[in-house]
Structures are given as structure tokens and as C-alpha cells.
Amino acid sequence: MHRRSLLALALATPALARAQSAPPLPVVASFSILGDMVRQIGGDQVTVHVIAGPDVDAHSFQPRPSDAQALRGAALVVRNGLGFDTWMDRLLQAAGATSAVTATEGVAVRRLSDGDTQGHQHGHAHEHDADASDPHAWQDLRRGQVYVRNIAAALQAADPARADHFRRGVEAYLQRLAALDGWVRAQIATVPEARRRVVTSHDAFGYFGDAYGVHFLAPQGISTESEPSAAQVARLIRTLKREGITAVFLENMANPATLQRLATEAGVKVQGRLYADALSPADGPAPTYEAMFRHNLGLLVRAMRGEG
Ligand code: ZN
């Protein structure tokens, strides 16, 4: 062995050994999709505590005292921002000086006034503001890649000894997400443009719709915190009938009652359950961010083509 490589080995080994023998970096994520992103980047070098877990609606989430406790041991806290997980601000205050990263930092934000959803004509207090931000930016895989870059940079800053490990993790992950984005576009391209119309429970798919050219309608606005009015539901039923929309879906973490009623009154069959604001448990159909897209696309494409 050359002297130079022996020297390099001698210099590299202690740092490497330290990084690998140190306990995994403790990270807290506000909801399941962010938790999965941290795991995909960090692998076995992170432990992830997710506060709003699988199938949980983060919009209306009420943190428990034990959630504040989890933040105290965290080296890094990851949140979505854009008004989605505002309860995390209170937890961070309660926990004191924990470093936090906002995953949507730098994403192009969709405003309610950008869309023609029903939500901004009615609904809850914050939707009276036509400039309110749509928080569901993870539903566009290109914006999702911005999330992943932000999280990786924060992991590297929180644990410089593992920076190389995180860099390799994020590079592989970004390549998979870019490939998945291309696959999603190819899938949507198999649906005639006039049939790219979908009804879901709430406006969780505005970014998806903008990115992939699908028109989403929902009885509920961008938050799930209040019920839609009877007039909103009646108007949506008329739209469904008039446009012959057959792609009608429940969401995994939302109350199914309104949408079931809407489908019955419109005489259409509910086509299944889309994963919107939360992943499934590990043994479900959408345990990761990538699996969520594959599952949702499978359902969406069949239903939009009228094969349901
Ligand atoms: Zn939502």
C-alpha cells in the first residue's frame, strides 16, 4: 500500500469510526411524509419521531404533552410550514432551543387566488383571504425535491460528521424522485385531456393539478377544519353530473361522510382512497412518499379513464 493511502486511511478512520459508532441522529418530523423523507436520506444514521403519524390529519392535529417532550431530545425538527403544521411552532417554543428546518423554504408557493377551486369562495376564516398559501406542496414531486434538499442540508448542518453519508443518501433519493416525476407525467399522458377531472374531499391536490395537468374539485377548501356548506355540496353535485366526472375519491385522513353523500346523490361510485396529507401505516398501500404517488396514480388513471 502506498504511503499516501496509508496516511489517508489513518486520517479518515477515526472520524468514520466516530460517525458510525455514535448513536443515530434524533430527528422529529411534524407529519408522516416529512418523516419518510428524513428516513430516505438518513437511513440507519437517523432515528425519526413523527408527531402526526400515518392516516392522521395534521390540519386539525392537537399535540399532546409527550410531543413537546420528544422535541427536547431532538437534534433537528422538520416542519412543512405554509400554515399546515402551525402547532409545531408552539411545540418548538415549549421545547426551547431546538434547531428547526421548514421543508417548504424556497418552494414556489401556490396561492388560493391562483386556482379556481370552490374553497376560496366560501369556507373558513383563513380562506376569505384570497392570498392564503396552499400548504400541500409535497403533492408535486419537483417541489418535493426542494423539500428533500432542504432537509438534507439541515441534517448535514446538524451532524457534520455524517455529512458524506447524508450527501450520498440525498443524491440517490433525488434521482428516484426525478424518475418518479417522469413516470407520473407519462401516466397522466395516457388519459385524454378532457377526462382529467377528479373530485376529492378537500383541496389537497392543487399543486398536483398544476404540475401534472389534472383538474381537481373538492367540497372542502385547503384545510379540513370546517365542513362545507350544503350549497357548496349541491353545486359540486351539479358539476359532477354536468361534466360526467367519474373519478371521485375519499382521502385517507379525512372524514368520508360528505364525499360519500355527494357521490350517492350524484349517482357515481367512490373509486377508492387517495393518500393526501398523510402516509399509510407500514403494512398499508402508501407507507412512503414514493409509494403514495404510485398508489394514487394507479387509482387516478383508472378512474379518469372511466375504467373504475
Ligand atoms: Zn390538507
Write up what this structure looks like:
The chain is α/β, with parallel strands linked by helices. It has two domains: 2-181, Rossmann fold (3-Layer(aba) Sandwich), CATH 3.40.50; 191-304, Nitrogenase molybdenum iron protein domain (Rossmann fold, 3-Layer(aba) Sandwich). It is 45% helix and 11% strand. It has ten helices and nine strands. Strands 2-1-3-4 form a four-stranded parallel sheet, sandwiched between helices. A three-stranded parallel sheet has the order 6-5-7. A two-stranded parallel sheet has the order 8-9. Helix 7 links the parallel strand 5 (197-199) and strand 6. Helix 2 (32-42) crosses helix 5, helix 3 (65-72) packs across helix 4 and helix 6 (163-188) runs parallel beside helix 10 (289-304). The protein is globular, with a radius of gyration of 21 Å. The termini are far apart. Mean pLDDT is 89; it is low at 116-128. Residues 59, 136, 202, 204, 224, 277 line the site of zinc ion.
Topology overview:
Layout: H1 3-21, E1 25-31, H2 32-42, E2 46-52, H3 65-72, E3 76-79, H4 87-95, E4 100-102, H5 141-158, H6 163-188, E5 197-199, H7 206-212, E6 215-217, H8 230-243, E7 247-248, E8 250-251, H9 257-266, E9 273-274, H10 289-304
Parallel strand pairs: 1-2, 1-3, 3-4, 5-6, 5-7, 8-9
Helix pairs in contact: 2-5, 3-4, 5-6, 6-10, 8-9
Residues 59, 136, 202, 204, 224, 277 line the site of zinc ion.
As laid out across the biggest beta sheet, the strand order is 2-1-3-4
How many DSSP E strands? Answer: 9
Number of helices: 10
At the fold tier of CATH, the topology name of the largest domain is Rossmann fold
Quaternary state of the chains: single chain
Distance between the termini: 65 Å
Order of helices and strands: HEHEHEHEHHEHEHEEHEH
**What is the CATH superfamily classification of the largest domain?**
Nitrogenase molybdenum iron protein domain
The structural domain count equals 2
What's the pLDDT, averaged over the residues?
89
Whole-number radius of gyration? 21 Å
CATH class of the largest domain: Alpha Beta
| Major sheet description | 4 strands, parallel
Helix fraction bin = 40-55%
Strand fraction band? Answer: 5-15%
CATH architecture of the largest domain: 3-Layer(aba) Sandwich
Estimated structural class: alpha/beta
Coarse morphology = globular
